[in-house]
Amino acid sequence: MQSAIKDEKPVLDSDSRRLLLQFSDMLLVERGLSKHTVSAYETDIKLFALHLQSIGSVSVKNANRADIMGFLGTRVESGGSARSAARMLSALRRFYGFLVRERFVSEDPTVLIDAPTIGRPLPSTLSETEVRKLLNAPVISTDIGLRDRAMLELLYACGLRVTELVSLNVDQVNLQQGVVRVWGKGNKERLVPMGEAASDWIERYTRDARDNLVKGLTSTLFLSLRGREMTRQSFWHRIKAHGLAAGINAHLSPHTLRHAFATHLVNNDADLRVVQLLLGHSDLSTTQIYTHVARERLKYIHAAHHPRG
Fold it and tell me: What angle do CA 253, 258, 261 make, to 5 degrees?
């Protein structure tokens, strides 16, 4: 008769289990944290305690800085994210803070450990082909369609923030010089060249459509059906509608074209400081995110087309 052999789950040593229970009680009673939050802390600390047992250190009271660094490194190497490792370190900081306070241990081994660097998420952008599809989506035989085409062209040509776009006045656009005077964050002024395509569409909109939308005296360039300045939300809905019509599956927002503007400039070897000036960034480090976007694009092209990619 064959006996079934079951895999036994690892069990915490009694000392670690006792300390974890007291820590959990403190979080629930003294800190008033939810059961869900406390359970998350318990899970991370239990993983650490089991890791210690697997390398021969019996209790969490014996852990040192090297043990914690080794544990976090093991988690990342096994596929965990930097964000997950940072969360685990945060749980261990709180746990060892409690152990020191209650004099279960004399020193906190997490004190000299820096949190893992969490990469900034890359901004959502569009390929040049997708941008062309989006720009061609509005039905330009209507006043609203012509307005939308001019707005999209200007947004992509200049990398404007949506607030900068919808609040533009007529006198901020100089068609003869081909520049837009923009008031950005902190009320800082910048001049941005807009190119021939955007200039042509704005000229066409102001000549053929804007007067039909005007109701009363207003200096706003891009007008709603009510003859007023458009809201950021209404333009966001317009972009989503045009993206749907163009068959674009990527996430779309007014900021997407700003990201596309910057990414395509960097992809075509534009100087990063020039891109910084055009975007109105006060700090170059903010602009540098677009070098990462370009790098991801290069990696994709290499993987897709290189024989050894």
Answer: 130
Q: 85 and 143 in one domain? A: no
Active site residue 232: no
- Which tokens belong to 16? 């670690």
- Domain of 215, CATH number, reads 1.10.443.10
**Spatial separation of the C-alpha atoms in residues 205 and 199, rounded to whole Å:** 10
Spans of the chain, pLDDT less than 70: 1-10, 57-58, 77, 115-124, 186, 281-309
Active site annotation includes 185: yes
Which residues fall within 8 angstroms of residue 27, CB to CB, at 6 or more apart? 33, 37, 38, 41
| Known catalytic membership, residue 255 | yes
Query: What is the span of the domain harbouring residue 35?
Result: 14-101
Would residue 281 show up in a list of annotated catalytic residues for this protein?
A: yes
Residue 264 designated active-site: no
Based on the residue annotation, tell me whether 41 is a catalytic residue of this protein: no
Spot the catalytic one: 185, 188, 237, 295: 185
87 and 140, same domain (yes or no): no
Give residue 4's pLDDT. Answer: 42
Task: Choose the final residue of a domain: 101, 118, 136.
Answer: 101
| List 75, 87, 242, 258, catalytic entry | 258
| Number of folded domains that form the chain | 2
Judge whether 15 and 62 are in contact, CB under 8 Å. Answer: no
Q: Tell me the whole-structure pTM to 2 decimals.
A: 0.56
The residue type found at 104 is F
